[in-house]
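Q: Hand in one record:
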Amino acid sequence: MRNLLSLLLLCLLLLSCSTNSREVRPEEDASQFVVLTDVVPDVILEIRYYGTYNFVGTRIDGYEEPTALLTRQAADSLKAVSDDVIKQGYRLKIYDAYRPQKAVDHFVRWAEDINDTLMKSYFYPDLDKSVLFPQEYICLKSGHTRGSTLDLTLFDMTTEKEVDMGGTFDWFGPESHPDFCGNPITPEQFQNRMILRQAMLRHGFKPFDTEWWHFTLKDEPFPDTYFTFPVNHLSVSL
């Protein structure tokens, strides 16, 4: 009996060691990520995919807390952007940062369900949902999942309102292109987009051709890794 118990304890010990020493796959490793507000405390967070005001209309898979995660390098560069725009009378407002692959998969499932048009009038009134894949509004992969891309706008500290960019975040249409000029975008709205764009460019980010709010760190540290860990504080504290 004593030998049997000893054997059982040995097996449990070996199983525990095996479990604890499991190699973390690269896409699961959050060790090079930070909670954005720990590095850039002046940012305002409005994490759209944690709530229901987004183009899907529900909380998106993988968003477990209304927080923003980024690679250390991207967060450090964004701190420089924040310091820059604060001198101009603005703060940065973040809509999205790191996005787990689970969230992208949620977008894909939603896009495949042509009958789900709950938020059409808010985000894509001029488009038939069937064109979202062909026109690349929805894709199987996202730069956000590599951890150095974020969506943001400016907040005016004088008026205490978001700066008028001439369109809402995640609007599906040509009006969202950063360089869109003319009706319905006014010269003032275009100039506001350029204030954000120029600040981001000065500090190491590159813009996206079709979304005025979307920027990626030029020298992103994980250009080929699509991460899977969820958006929460625990992910980067382990």
In short: Residues 32-236 form a domain with the Muramoyl-pentapeptide Carboxypeptidase; domain 2 fold (CATH 3.30.1380.10). The chain has one domain: 32-236.
